[in-house]
Amino acid sequence: MPVSEIIDPADSDAGNRRRRFIEVVGPILGVILVVVVILVVALHSYHTTRKGVIALSQDLLREQQKHITQEVSDYLAPAPATATVARDLLTDPVTEEPPRIFLAYGASMLRNVSQVESFYLADDRGQFWFIDRAPRDIADGMEWVHLDRKKDVFRHWYYDKSGKLVRTTDTPAKHYDPRQRPWYEGAFDHPDLNWSDPYPTVATQQLIVTAASVLHTDDGHQAVFAINISLNRLTDFLAAMKIGRSGQAVVVDQKGRLVAGTHLLDVAKAANWSFDRMLLNPKTQPVFTRALALFHIYGSGVHLIKAHDTQYVTIMASLHHIRPGWILMLNAPENDFAAFTAAAGRQGLLFSLVIVVLAALLAGFLVRQSRRSERLQRRLDRQQAQTRAESNALNALAGTTNLLDPTHDAPLLTQRLAELAESRRVSLWRTVGNDERLLCEDAYDSDSDTHSAGMELSHDDLGAFFALLLEGDVIESHEAGTQEGLRTFQRIVMTQIDARSVYIQPIQARGSVIGMVVLEDARRPHAVSHVIAIVAEIAAIRFAALQGLENETAKPQNRHTDDRSAVETRMNEGFLAAPGESGSGAFAAGKYAMVSIATILFEDTAADSSVDLIPVVQTLVTKFQEVVRRDHIFSAQILGNRVVLIGECAQEPDIDAVRRVADALLALREIALITLSDAELTPSFRIGLDVGRAFGAVLGDDPGLFNVWGEAAQTSELLAVSAPDSGTIQVSETAYALLRDYYLFRPRGMFYLPVLGITNTYVLAARR
Amino acid sequence: MNEDLSSVLELRDAQPVFEESGLTAIAYSLRLMPGDCALIACRDPTRASRFADLCSGLIPLVSGGISCLGLDWMTLPERRAWALRGRIGRIMQKGAWIDLFGTDLNILIQQLHHTKTPTDTLVAEAVRLSRLFGLPGLPTLSPDRLSDADRAKSACVRAFMGEPRLLLLEEPVDPDTTDMMTPFLAQLTAARERGCGVIWFSRTPSIWHGYVGEGIQRYRLLDEGLLPVKQVH
After folding, report:
1. Which domain of life is it from (chain B) (predicted)?
2. Domains annotated on chain B, with CATH
């Protein structure tokens, strides 16, 4: 089971990850912190400045308000002053005769006070005198008007600048009676001074307000003196006032009717010159409308009002002491005063952001530089580790005793090479039997950390591959399954570990290829090609020596007959139940000391495969039968997913029988490998061989069933189950002792086996 | 066989603090190479447990040093030390079972904690080992409801999970439960073949009768220290 630990205790780099994390995240956090601080400082600065500016603008507006209040007061001041003076001066009775004092006083006032439009004088008997400025054709002239009640006309006298009468005209009075006019009647409500509501004069398009006071003439009658003041001039004055850049000022009465100020004429025209309808328009003048509402609630004061997404500073003040009920209102957008702070803030922010961007760039460079240094350091470390690993590997190889002695195993060769080349499997193969076969001497699977050996490849099946190999050049392919010459090799060998790429270094001795080093799925074969070459050289020496040894070793005297026809294969008892022959004496039931039993165990890995298994198995079994017949196996049984071969049931060691089984196993293995590979099936089977005690008998009757059971059968199965790799033949120590002169073996190691205890097992590789 | 040249466990004159261990404060030395098996006879189960703790780096030292897989317990940072303990399979005398959980979780918890191996893979491995040790499958009852024999088998499954690099086995098999001996020895041998170092504590040394071979060392753990026993075949 592959183990993937969360923390690798051997990885001393684990502690550095936090440092690396800090190296990367630290500068970024720093930049973010700087940005946040700058934003907070800029925001705080903006708010503080804005608050100060608003306070300042409020002070400014207050001063403006005082100034405007004073101006309005001065504008309307002639009315009360004139009324007071008039009460003292105009004591003469109002008659048909021109009232000289009134006219002189009025003329003087009209000449000197521009906002005064005209003066009225009327008594309780209906006498009415009126003075105003003469029409434009008489420059700086005066116009006297008297109501002649008898003729029901207004008599007009026009005087020029020097007081000379220019002309007189009469206009119909239309039964005009001054005593019925609002200014006359209102004067008696407030005898000292009564202000009328503003009223328009359509002819002159002016809004006039009249202040009237009651007089007592010497003849005991009551008269009313009235002064008319034009509000248009007040409007012009208010319009001329500069409040911020776009501030406005208006005077309204308590009901919100516009007395003077911006848009007066527009409002008056919209209201058809009806004062009662000259109200503030909430749509066009929302700020003043809300300000008036606030005034009604809070009275005079300064307020911030938001309208049309703009903050306005507004100030409201009562003009009660000048004209009861009138309210002065001023507003100005906050931006008129605070805009520069926002602009300054934005500018400051922009500069800060430029600094932040620069800082971020620097931080980025810092991180990049740090990462590069880290990468370089890692690369250096890797190269050093690589060099160390190569040195260690070479040292280990050099330090291995009997490295060149083929009678001693050298698993280090494949293992170290797999580590250095980061290969999933490394195997050493040598040619046997006149370059007809390739025998795997050692294969190291780094995934499972296991060695295996014994696989054999025949020239008959791999002609193209053998031809390619014997050329003596390095063979390399990233997709061996698609390359001509390697396809069959890939199917037979590489599919065992699902390898795709392969790197093959031929092993040469005296100019001819005697084997190969195969690296499957190697990540860096080129980086260690020199080590591969060294391993190939070492393997060449070992293989050459092995070949020499094999040649020198005289084949053992054929003490035993090779005539195998003497033994009859008991096919019917293995594959098919047959009538027992124990009665005929052909086979005696009993306990046999030396029974050679081999078990071939097929693993059912093709359950989900789309391949039709029956024909494949049929072919396989047919070929098995041929081999079994050829090698005269005593009995061959097929049971489920296993095939059991029995060489001989004997009391004494029968080497011939064991050899027949071993020969048959080698042939069967080759057949199974090729047949299954051709059928696109993973050749997944294991073989075990043991020679030992077992019971044998034909059991039952009609038909009797030949059966063998006991220690050897169990051990054989266990050896098959625990065979190191797919397609390998694992044999017991006893079988090894009998066969070692005729076959090549590789010790697999020490194992605990039931009943036997700790024992050695071997992998049967090939015939000598 | 793993060809790693560094030792799996090495005690270099390691002198434990007596107050914290209960072990005699003398220098202990032991060197366990990959695949080696130390059979330690100890009549006092507490002493054996303390010695196993010492090997696991859980007991402070007065002097000397203990390294596991080439890493010194004393100098190893805490996180890496705990991760290293994840590579140790241990069977404890006192069981060390958490009865609040099922035996299955008790078995899997070490690998779940220390590795990123998918749970399905871990369960498959646990089932395989359970069958090998003679259990019909992965036991799911809480440990206190299992029979002694099944609990002992479960302890073996837990110890062998995750291909440990060092096995500290305190009385793993009872002489009475001989049916467990075969799979236990088979797994032990397989683990040793993988390169795992083994320390097997037992009160009854006769249980090792017949278990001989290369790489097997025998000791006696007494108050006097760890004394090698002459190999008798």
Report:
1. Bacteria
2. 9-228 (3.40.50.300)
A-B interface: how many C-beta pairs under 8 angstroms? Answer: 79
A640 touches chain B (CB under 8 A): no
Chain A residue nearest residue B129, CA to CA: A1
A5 touches chain B (CB under 8 A): yes
Instruction: Tell me, yes or no, if B86 comes closer than 8 A to chain A by beta carbon.
Output: yes
Rounded to the nearest angstrom, the minimum Cα separation between B200 and chain A is: 16
**Scanning the structure block, which residue is given the tokens 């359950």?**
A607
A416 in the same domain as A325: no
Q: Do A39 and A165 have their domain in common?
A: no
Q: Which residues of B touch A5 (CB under 8 A)?
A: 83, 86-87, 114-116
Residue A167's DSSP bridge partners are A158
pLDDT for B1 beyond 50: no
- Mean pLDDT by 10-residue block, N- to C-terminus, for chain A (768 residues)? 73 70 80 83 83 80 79 82 84 85 88 87 90 86 89 91 88 89 86 82 75 88 89 80 79 88 81 84 86 89 84 86 84 79 78 82 85 88 83 78 78 86 90 81 82 78 83 88 84 85 89 90 88 89 81 54 55 41 57 88 67 83 86 84 84 82 90 84 85 85 79 85 76 88 76 54 82
A406, part of any domain: no
Same domain, A426 and A462: yes
Long-range interactions of B213-216: CB distance < 8 A, separation 24+: B213/A750, B213/A758, B214/A750, B215/B33, B215/B35, B215/B36, B215/B37, B216/B36, B216/B37, B216/B38, B216/B39
- Name every chain B residue with its beta carbon within 8 A of the beta carbon of A757: 210-211
Domain of residue A40, residue span: 16-74+338-384
Contact B14, B54 (CB under 8 A): yes
Same domain, yes or no: A650 and A706: yes
Considering the domain architecture, whether residues A347 and A328 belong to the same structural domain is answered as no
Looking at the fold, whether A688 and A548 belong to one and the same domain comes out as no
| Cα gap A664→A646, rounded to integer Å | 11
**A745 and A613 fall within a common domain:** yes
Q: Which DSSP state fits A14?
A: G
What value of ipTM does the predicted structure carry?
0.75
- Domain total in chain A: 5
* A607 and A739 assigned to the same domain: yes
